[in-house]
Amino acid sequence: MLVSELKELLKKYNEEELRLLILEMYKAMPKKLREDNDIDALLQDVQAYLGKKKNEKKQAKQIDIQELKLEIHQFIEHAFNQYYMVPNNVIRKSERPKWRFKVKAYIKSLQSVSVEGEGGRTATILLEQLYKMLSYACGYYIFNTDNPFRSVGIEQTMLLDMVLKRKLSSGISPEVVKPAVALVIDSIVDRETLHSELIIILVKNLKSPDAKEIAIEQCVALKAELASSKTKTDKKSWLSVSSIYERREKNNNLVEMVFRLYMALGEYEKAIKYYHENYEERESEISLYVLLRMLLGYELKEYWLREYDEAVQRGVKPRDVLQRTYKYIQENDSLPDYFIYN
Asked: What's the superkingdom here (predicted)?
């Protein structure tokens, strides 16, 4: 409903009915929505609320990006020094839990800066740095939380999407796309996010076929760089095991990205062929499961059945959930929405 239509509609209600209407609307609002929009303040003093909003909009237009840059850089430095987590003489104890409000305010301010011009480029870089910091905090304690994105009140995928849209708005080239790919691949995900979700966000932001082709080239290049940097540490050491795992995970995420890019281009055979040739997994059944999970998401029944049958012919024994899903497809001649677990 348009605002003009709402104004006209409200004319038919008397004062008592309007009170009831406001009460029911308030009760229907989620608590987070009420808090984010400060609805209580609106009800307490509508004129003061509107005046405050007007001032906030005015201030947003007058953001000193260079001053904000210095403040954010100092904040990030303090965060990586764990000053918001452990006792120190730099950040007072009472101020340490407030880091989340700072980050939330920074993101809001940077969002309001136009993507164009030098100020826009600076804002984009700062948003990316904040994203990287929060991503790092998903794997290493720099704040007193193991779910930093939730603490700030934003989903990891949402902030990544915001950063990528700004980064890619300047035009598509290898110099732009490669850092975007690396940003996704190097991300540490929170407990509520899968790397696949980050990959899908990037693929969706690469709108043209040319952009996707460039991304494929950059993925292949990054994969080659990764392969050439294999650790030579003693294989028995924990560090070596950890490094091998991380390298394999990054390799497989790059392979998945290429797979999804080919799928977005409609090159299904190329996608599957590249996956088979490059996905690193000792257990062939696990590799099959990952592939079939992705093919299910793309609703490609014939390819799903073909890959299942060929794997069985090679001696792979699919897990129960794949067998049940295969049986469902055979009986219903259609793919289920999800794997059949029961």
From this structure: Bacteria
DSSP letters, 29-79, are S-HHHHHHTTHHHHHH-HHHHHHHHHHHHHHHHT--HHHHHHHHHHHHHHH
User: 190: closest CA among 163, 155, 222, 143?
Assistant: 155
Q: For tokens 């989903």, name the residue.
A: 155
Q: What is the pTM of this model?
A: 0.77
Answer yes or no: do 87 and 158 share one domain: yes
| 340 is a domain residue | no
For residue 130, being part of any structural domain is answered with: yes
Q: Please answer whether residues 318 and 285 qualify as being in contact, where contact means their C-beta atoms are separated by less than 8 angstroms.
A: yes
Tell me, yes or no, whether 225 lies in a domain.
no
Nearest-angstrom CA–CA distance, 144 and 320: 40
Token digits of residue 320: 């129960």
Instruction: Return the higher-pLDDT residue of 12 and 100.
Output: 100
pLDDT at 237 over 50: no
Same domain, residue pair 30 and 92: no
Q: Are the beta carbons of 264 and 208 closer than 8 angstroms?
A: no
Tokens of 277: 């040739």
Please tell me whether residues 95 and 158 are part of one structural domain.
Answer: yes
Residues contacting residue 164 through CB under 8 Å, at least 6 positions apart? 180, 183, 201, 202, 205
| Statement to judge: residues 39 and 110 lie in one domain | no
Beta carbons within 8 Å of 268's beta carbon, 6+ residues apart: 262, 300, 303
For the segment 293-321, the average pLDDT, to the nearest whole number, is 96
Instruction: Inform me whether the pLDDT recorded for 162 exceeds 60.
Output: yes
Residue range of the domain that includes 9 = 1-49
DSSP secondary structure code for residue 188 in this structure: P
Q: Which of 107, 110, 198, 86 is nearest to 151 (CA)?
A: 107
Residue 179 has pLDDT above 90, yes or no: yes
Boundary of a domain, candidates 144, 166, 188: 166
Domain count for the chain: 2
Query: At 61, which amino acid appears?
Result: K
Are 15 and 96 part of one and the same domain? no
Q: Is the dihedral of CA 277, 281, 284, 285 positive or negative?
A: negative
